[in-house]
Amino acid sequence: MTKHNVAEMDETITPDARIDSVPASLIPPLHQTAVLLDIDGTLLDFAPTPREVWVPPELSTTLKQLHQRTGGALALVSGRSLNDIDLIFAPDVFPAIGGHGAEMRLQPDSEAVAAHAPPLDKELKRRLAAIAKLSPGILLEDKGYSLALHYRLAPAAEKAIYEAVSLIRAELPNAPIEVLPGKSVCEIKHSGFTKATGVLELMTHEPFRGRRPFFIGDDVTDETVFGIMPDFNGLAFSVGRHALGVDGHFDGPSDVRQFLAQLLGDDRDASLS
Prior knowledge:
Blueprint: E1 33-37, H1 57-69, E2 74-77, H2 82-89, E3 96-98, E4 103-105, E5 113-114, H3 122-129, E6 139-142, E7 146-150, H4 158-171, E8 177-182, E9 185-190, H5 195-202, E10 212-217, H6 223-228, E11 235-239, E12 248-250, H7 253-263
Parallel strand pairs: 1-2, 1-10, 2-3, 10-11, 11-12
Antiparallel strand pairs: 3-4, 4-5, 6-7, 7-9, 8-9
Helix pairs in contact: 1-7
């Protein structure tokens, strides 16, 4: 498949542009599409702390309309817990995969289910949490299925954090954990599940089953989902960088938000709105 740099289409993807200015092969009609979206660094701009992210009102409108136009086949795919996702987007609730594949909700009004993901061992979590004492700027986030050490406010602590995590892993070589390096965050989770395993499960359920998905993500943890998009004849887009194997990229979250709004103007789906 020909690769396209979506960010280089600035002159065609504008507030007044039509979606068919993007090659039709890239964008299936919404009633045939599953829209899968990472949150931090993809839909939302980064903030000094995870709790300070802001959801632009126009994004809420876009997501609600995309959810309707896809017949419910829109899902947020995040390392955040479902509870955290709901707090950020409140009062709106969307289908979602949370905790890097540990949790899943198929419909806004359905119960969340755990995707065969055991929580981290309490003693291991206690040892990892103590790493936050290395610097007052390190923020600890306990997600149940994982533990994140954010150092956006203490960038100089990055090396010390990873060294401390490596020491614990060396002392506990049989611990079933995985370290996920991210943008100013080191996250430790139970091994055996990823965003990709969550998406694979999601795509077996209605209304996602049988649709052609596209996924947009920005971080290393999103690469597992990039890798499975060809299994569904799907499309992958990275944000802020040219990730390996994607079909295009966006410069930043504002470009993603604009692109998603443009999908609603596609005449091919006008009869479904």
